[in-house]
Structures are given as structure tokens and as C-alpha cells.
Amino acid sequence: MNLTAYLDGVGLLGPGLDDWNTAQPILAGAADYVPRTIVVPPPMALPPAERRRVGLAVKVALAVAQEAIAGAQADAKQLASVFSSSSADGDTCDAICRALASEDRHLSPTRFHNSVHNAPAGYWGVASGAMSPATVLCAYDGSFAAGLLEALAQVSVDATGTLLVTYETPYPEPLHANLPHPSAFGLALALLPQQGPHSLARLQVELVEAPADRLANPGLEALRRQIPSARGLPLLQALASGRAGRVVLEYLEPLSLAVTIQPCR
Length: 265
Description:
9 helices, globular
């Protein structure tokens, strides 16, 4: 297997990681990591009616997708997309479960269509005008690596640019006790088949049987362990350092995903 792509844009949003530009010195170890409550920007690219209806998962996914597209200076309409999340919209799932367990089982149509796993991909199509193919998947704690593998497969096989969007939101109790994501988190990568003027690095992936890399910073390592989409932080740390290298990301046991990084700048 020889799956390669050029990374042209990054989107990042998490506690203490407001965006890719401000997160780079933190990930490179040049600035302290200070955890704080995530601030999610409103999805201004959506029409007002849709903007009022969307939940946290869609807001996070669209925020990082738009940042990655802006960084790559790419046309979103020309890119395929891969959306990957281990759990998606926890608040909506909880609200539906509570309604079904009550005497009044009427469900809001908005709740219903926001509950499906491909809701963020659908809203991305509305926000960006993209009508290109969208793939939506879930692989529990291996969801980031599964999404990256799928995105690079599309770039390599179809020779088309692909936007990877991974995201998580926390569940309310009592679901939170069984799946304790501490915060919402999003990470997006704009991947192209050819090197261009905005390319940051060349990525090549392969499946290996090896332990996943950990982060030396305790706060960032806690994010990596607790939030499935944050399993991609070792990759972002390597990119922030600006050095060639190889990172191993958690996938589905006994396999991991090794990513070789060759900077373009």
C-alpha cells in the first residue's frame, strides 16, 4: 500500500487550541498549553434558518472545515470530503432518548435530521455549495486514523483533492459516564494529489503493528487519550515542528497507522 497526498490546509479547534495558527507554537513546545473552555464560532456560511437549527457537532465540523479550506486557498466545491466521528451529536442523541422514554414521544423534525451521522456532511454541502462525493464513517477510538486512511485512499486512487473533517462533542449525563469526552474537538485536513504553492507537507501512510505515539505535554496527551479526533495531535505536532519524520497513530488493534511526513517548506 502506497497512499500519499499533499497537505495544503489545517483546521483545528479544541480546549486551549483556538485554531491552527495559534496552536502551532503550543504544539511545537514554544508556548505553554493552557486548557480553557472551547469557543465555537457561529456557522456564518449557513443560511440563517439552518444556522439556528444546528447543534454543536455541526458547528465544530464546519469551523475546522472552513479553516482548512481557507489555509489551502482551495475551492471547496472541487474537493471530495470525508467526515469521521466516533459519536457525533451527543446532545441530540440524548434529547431523542429522553423523548422516547417519556410519555410524550413526539420528536422534533429538527432533532431527527440532526441525529443522523451524516448531518455535518449535509450541512457542509449547504454551507460550501459542494456537490462532490462525501463519505461519512465511524470507527470508535480509531475514527481519526480511519478517516485519514480513507481520505488518502481517495486522493491516491481517484487523484482528486479530499477534505478530511473529524470532530467530537461530549455527551450529557448519564451517557457521559460511559463515553466521557471532556470537550468538543475538531480537526480538518485539506489533502491534494499534487504539490502546490500552499502545500505544507507530503504525507504517506501505511498500516503497522506498533504502539501509538504519545505526547510529552501532559495536557495535550490527556486530550489525545480522551477524545478520538484528537488522536491526530501527534501528526499536527510533527507538522508544527517543521521537521521530516514519522508518527504512529492509534487505529484498530492490533493495527496502527504510520504517517511519514516530508515538509514542503
